[in-house]
Amino acid sequence: MHLAHDHVFDHGKQAAERGTRLVMWITAVNDGTRITDLIEVNYQPQTSG
Fold first, then answer.
1. Looking at the whole model, is its pTM more than 0.90?
2. What are the Cα distances from residue 45, in Å, to 2, 14, 39, 41, 48?
């Protein structure tokens, strides 16, 4: 059984999600959106599993 690939995939997914949030934040700043509004609308608690 080869688990290394699964671990790399999970790590990459987390990095992609962080990157997406960063782009959304930058876009919001450039559009003049309040950051508190952005966080309130787009925040989703992380679930383990």
1. no
2. 30, 13, 11, 12, 10
Q: Which residues contact 38 (CB under 8 A, 6 or more apart)?
A: 24, 25, 28
- The total of structural domains in the chain comes to 1
Residue pLDDT, tens place only, 1-49: 445 555 556 677 888 888 888 888 888 777 766 666 666 655 566 666 5
CA distance 40 to 45: 11
Q: Which two tokens stand for residue 10?
A: 């999970």
9 inside domain: no
